[in-house]
Amino acid sequence: QVQLVESGGGLVQPGGSLRLSCATSGLTFSSYAMSWYRQAPGKERELVASITGSGGSTNYADSVKGRFTISRDNAKNEAHLQMNSLKPEDTAVYYCNAATRYYKYWGQGTQVTVSS
After folding, report:
1. What's the rounded Cα separation, in Å, for the pair 57 and 89?
2. DSSP 8-class letter at 63
3. Helix, strand, coil proportions of the chain in percent (round to 5)?
4. Averaged confidence pLDDT in the chain
5. Other CB atoms within 10 Å distance of the CB of residue 115
6. Which residue among 7, 12, 52, 59 has its CA within the 20 to 30 Å range from the CA of 98?
7. pLDDT tens digit string along 5-36?
8. pLDDT, mean of residues 78-103
9. Alpha carbon separation from 68 to 31, 86, 92 (Å, rounded)
10. How many angstroms separate the CA atoms of 56 and 53, rounded?
11. Rounded-to-integer distance, Cα 102 and Cα 113, Å
């Protein structure tokens, strides 16, 4: 059974930082590209960042470039999203995603709220 469990969300002031983690089990982790998506109230889910199975290539939404960093630890079957210089518009539920050409799995999401 494949499981993706996000952690690390919370309430942070503008300009602050958070580090999200996605712990996975039940899959061959290094075979999956890992991504972080987010969904704000009343908006569609959007891709924030992605990383290839080897970790050799990353991709970011324009809105987070230079502020967020995606990484993975294939030995621990974990993915991470370091979020710096957070803005109120970063407030959303953040979801971890694992994908190959044939399979896609989602975590349950973790709330990130940026507010003073």
Report:
1. 26
2. T
3. 5, 50, 45
4. 97
5. 10
6. 12
7. 999 999 999 999 999 999 999 999 999 999 99
8. 97
9. 23, 9, 15
10. 8
11. 33
